[in-house]
């Protein structure tokens, strides 16, 4: 059967994925929905190479939600290490408590139920339904959006997220449910390893047709802004958190001052944001500690 002009050849993509897919541990058959959920939370804006060792530690330490729920917030934050965006760890801990208390220590399969859980957004809910339960639901991340933009629409970049992303991607899925779930993984893999943002390797692309290549690979009109880390509030927050992760209890303010001496205003701003986010606590004595370790926090 000939493919419509604006489609992706599922047979070709699935064959390519079967032959070349990375052997990522959360893709293996024995992995549970909870463990897939942990991987999806960790992988948000974080490279696979940084996630894999931490994920393995978490699977061994917290194989089911109730195991994590029995741990403190501070234990989870310490185990999160330097993955970045540590609020994700707190939200996952909160999610584990709900799963243990209200869902029989299991991750639900229904997208709408998943969306009702703490810290679970539209992408994560569909990723769990698809990758853990094999459902035919569109899973759209930046990699998928880029592949669809290029192969289907002939654009170099996908642009800003749109309400069209889910229905457009769902229309590309094979009708057969088990093939659709693998197709979603394959589409994501193609964007992550071949059809990359900065250096797409079209010579390795398995797709027989690509609207972007056909159009002469037009240059993107989107101007990317490089996100620096050095000297940012994010770095300041990380330094302050490092102090508290390494402490055995609440610490004095001077310990935090020494961790970021370059800009007192920025340090104060970072400290305040950590308190607002619930990542740290201030005790009635004016000391600072990780969430859950402040005793009688103020």
TrEMBL record:
User: Where in this chain does the record put each HhH-GPD domain?
Assistant: 42-193
Q: Which residues form a coiled coil?
A: none
Checking InterPro entries in the record gives: DNA_glycosylase (IPR011257), HhH-GPD_domain (IPR003265), HhH_base_excis_C (IPR023170), HhH_motif (IPR000445), MIG/MutY (IPR044298)
SUPFAM superfamilies membership: DNA-glycosylase
Catalysed conversion reaction? Hydrolyzes free adenine bases from 7,8-dihydro-8-oxoguanine:adenine mismatched double-stranded DNA, leaving an apurinic site
Cofactor requirement: [4Fe-4S] cluster
Cite the EC number.
3.2.2.31
> What UniProt keywords apply to this chain's record, in alphabetical order?
DNA damage, DNA repair, Glycosidase, Hydrolase, Iron, Iron-sulfur, Metal-binding
CDD domains for this protein: ENDO3c
Using the UniProt record, name the top-level EC class of this enzyme in a single word: hydrolase
Q: So what family is this one in?
A: Belongs to the Nth/MutY family.
What this protein is called in its record is Adenine DNA glycosylase
Organism annotation: Nocardia suismassiliense
């Amino acid at each position: 059967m000939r493919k419509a002009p604006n489609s992706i050849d599922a047979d070709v993509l699935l064959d390519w994925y079967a032959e070349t897919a990375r052997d990522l541990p959360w893709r293996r058959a024995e992995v549970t929905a909870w463990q897939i959920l942990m991987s999806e939370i960790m992988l948000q804006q974080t490279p696979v190479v940084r996630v894999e060792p931490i994920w393995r530690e978490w699977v061994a330490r917290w194989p089911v939600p109730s195991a994590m729920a029995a741990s403190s917030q501070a234990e989870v934050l310490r185990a999160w290490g330097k993955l970045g965006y540590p609020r994700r760890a707190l939200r996952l801990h909160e999610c584990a408590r709900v799963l243990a208390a209200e869902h029989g220590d299991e991750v639900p399969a229904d997208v709408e139920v998943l969306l009702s859980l703490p810290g679970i957004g539209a992408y994560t809910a569909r990723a769990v339904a698809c990758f853990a339960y094999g459902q035919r639901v569109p899973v759209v991340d930046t990699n998928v959006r880029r592949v669809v933009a290029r192969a289907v629409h002939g654009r170099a970049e996908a642009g800003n997220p749109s309400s069209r992303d889910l229905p457009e991607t769902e229309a590309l899925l094979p009708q057969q449910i088990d093939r659709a779930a693998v197709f979603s993984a394959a589409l994501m893999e193609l964007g992550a390893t071949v059809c990359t943002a900065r250096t797409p390797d079209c010579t390795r692309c398995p797709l027989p047709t690509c609207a972007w290549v056909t159009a002469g690979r037009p240059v993107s009109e989107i101007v990317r802004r490089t996100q620096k880390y050095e000297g940012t509030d994010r770095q300041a927050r990380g330094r302050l958190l490092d102090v508290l992760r390494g402490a055995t209890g609440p610490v004095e303010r001077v310990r935090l001052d020494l961790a970021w001496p370059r800009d007192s205003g920025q340090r104060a701003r970072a400290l305040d944001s950590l308190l607002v986010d619930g990542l740290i606590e201030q005790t009635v004595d004016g000391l600072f500690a990780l969430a859950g370790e402040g005793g009688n926090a103020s």
